[in-house]
Design a protein that fits this description.
The protein folds into three domains: 18-282, 3-Layer(aba) Sandwich (Rossmann fold), CATH 3.40.50.620; 307-420, Isoleucyl-tRNA Synthetase, Domain 1 (Orthogonal Bundle); 424-488, no CATH class. By secondary structure, it is of the alpha/beta class. The protein is 50% helix and 14% strand. The strands form five sheets. The chain has a four-stranded parallel β-sheet with strand order 4-3-9-10, sandwiched between helices. The two termini are 40 Å apart. It comes from Dissulfuribacter thermophilus. A motif ('HIGH' region) lies at residues 31-41.
């Protein structure tokens, strides 16, 4: 099945056909490096990381660019507040970005350029726009002349006359039209600055993405992504200045992920509902956050709550436990080759279709919500096979389960989950949970030994009492041919 993509520009799904066969040019707007990354950044990063991974899974060679804005009004103002240089602030927050993204399992982009390292390319692009009559200089600033680009507003669906009615010229600006936007800002005392044909200054926000994307990917990109909040004015301005400079389409597929809300409200510092990735990961497993962020279609809004994270963490744990159990069946020394029948046979038949169902979901505009649903459905079928394999052991299960695990490995690799060794994951989670309720692994193991002694003595009351006591603490016991095991149920 061919991939179809919803393009924000056309407002509909269209077949995905890259400029070069087998190759994809993808650019995603990165952070403005002035503060810790929040859950909104996490959503964009996880969404496009999964798209990046899936395109490669489908055999594409992907050149992926994610930039850093390391000079900007926000950076300058925050640096002044902290009494450090803008460069120091940007370096610190870029380091924090990598700390957060590495914890989330976000893969590095092919190139991760910074605005301040591409001043020559930015200046050259501005010069081209001036030469073509799309930009002008006023008092050391350079502005893009919006009315020279008739298609302005196409991406965001806005009418240029309505935009003009609501626009204004700020104090100190000398632009000819309120709609015009800055490409270059003349130097102010104490701010970072670079030499240019228009005097010392620094680039505007929008021009950097055009200059960097075209340097690494050419004049036309296959995919340009970012959050829904970037459509206007950032991406609208990028599109206008790029196409005005080259005379060619800038992007063939515009992709935008939806907002993360908190109790139905857009997240913002002013509302006091600003949640950083660091704070979330201090309480929840990174894969639980990834699963949560992929549980809705990337274009849909997503409402955050600790309860939702707890549910996703429990779901991740259940998946790991099933994989652990599957490995246990595979490794068990069973020589009998009883035929696989009944429920197990039906479940294995269903498992055969899970990978294709996953591909179909991802081919349909990278629908991770459906893809996750197929993952859970597959886990349910796998549990059925495991139950039957334990009830009627047969060596024939080994190859079937190994093939099933390959499917879950593929799905996990694309979604960035189930990337740990199941035994190690469960061991660490168990110890962490026990620590949170003031118990130790040794306490549980001692209780299991006491229960075994009681069972051998046929003291069923004591044995049941020990089981019930552990159950009340969220610890479940399973009696297997290999001995008694325990797991966390909460």
């Amino acid at each position: 099945m061919a991939i179809t993509v919803y393009s924000s520009h056309l407002k509909k799904k269209i077949p995905f056909s890259p400029i070069e066969e087998g190759k994809v040019r993808m650019y995603v707007c990165g952070i403005t490096a002035y503060d810790r990354c929040h859950i909104g950044h996490a959503r964009s990063a996880v969404v496009f990381d999964s798209i990046f991974r899936y395109l490669r899974e489908k055999g594409f060679e992907v050149k992926f660019i994610r930039n850093f804005t390391d000079i900007d009004d926000k950076i300058i103002n925050r640096a002044k507040e902290e009494g450090i240089s803008p460069k120091e602030l940007a370096e610190r927050e870029i380091a924090h970005f990598y700390e957060d993204m590495d914890a989330l399992g976000i893969e590095r982009a092919t190139f991760e350029p910074r605005a301040t390292e591409h001043i020559p390319e930015i200046i050259a692009l501005i010069e081209t726009l001036i030469e073509k009559g799309h930009a002008y200089e006023r008092g050391g600033d350079v502005y893009f002349r919006v009315r020279t680009f008739p298609q302005y507003g196409e991406l965001s669906g806005r009418n240029i006359d309505e935009l003009r009615a609501g626009a204004r010229i700020d104090v100190g600006e000398l632009k000819d039209d309120p709609l015009d936007f800055a490409l270059w800002k003349g130097a102010k005392p104490g701010e970072p600055k670079w030499d240019s044909p228009w005097g010392e200054g620094r680039p505007g926000w929008h021009i950097e993405c055009s200059a960097m994307s075209m340097k690494y990917l050419g004049n036309t990109l296959d995919i340009h992504g970012g959050g829904l909040d970037l459509i206007f004015p950032h991406h609208e301005n990028e599109k206008a200045q790029s196409e005005a400079a080259t005379g060619r389409p800038f992007v063939n597929y515009w992709l935008h992920n939806g907002f993360v809300t908190i109790k139905g409200e857009k997240m913002s510092k002013s509302l006091g509902n600003f949640i950083t990735i660091k704070d979330i990961l201090s309480e929840f497993h990174p894969e639980a956050l990834r699963l949560f962020l992929l549980s809705k279609h990337y274009r849909s809004p997503l409402d955050y709550s600790p309860e939702a994270l707890r549910e996703n963490e429990a779901a991740i744990s259940r998946c790991y436990y099933t994989l652990f159990e599957a490995l246990d069946v595979i490794e068990a020394p069973v020589k009998k080759k009883r035929p696989i029948e009944g429920r197990a046979q039906d479940a294995l038949r269903e498992l055969e279709g899970v990978k294709q169902a996953f591909y179909s979901a991802m081919d349909d505009d990278f629908n991770t919500a459906k893809a996750v649903g197929h993952l859970f459905e597959g886990i349910r079928h796998l549990n059925t096979v495991i139950e039957e394999a334990k009830r009627r052991p047969s060596a024939l299960y080994k190859d079937e389960l190994q093939e099933a695990l390959k499917t879950f490995s593929t799905i996990g690799k694309v979604l960035g989950i189930l990337q740990e060794d199941p035994k190690e994951f469960l061991e660490r989670r168990n110890i962490s949970y026990l620590k949170s309720i003031g118990l130790t692994k040794e306490y549980v193991e001692d209780a299991i030994k006491r229960r075994e002694l009681a069972r051998k003595a046929k003291d069923w009351q004591t044995a049941d009492s020990i089981r019930d006591e552990l159950q009340s603490k969220g610890i479940s016991l399973m009696d297997t041919p290999q001995g008694t095991r325990w797991r966390i149920e909460k």
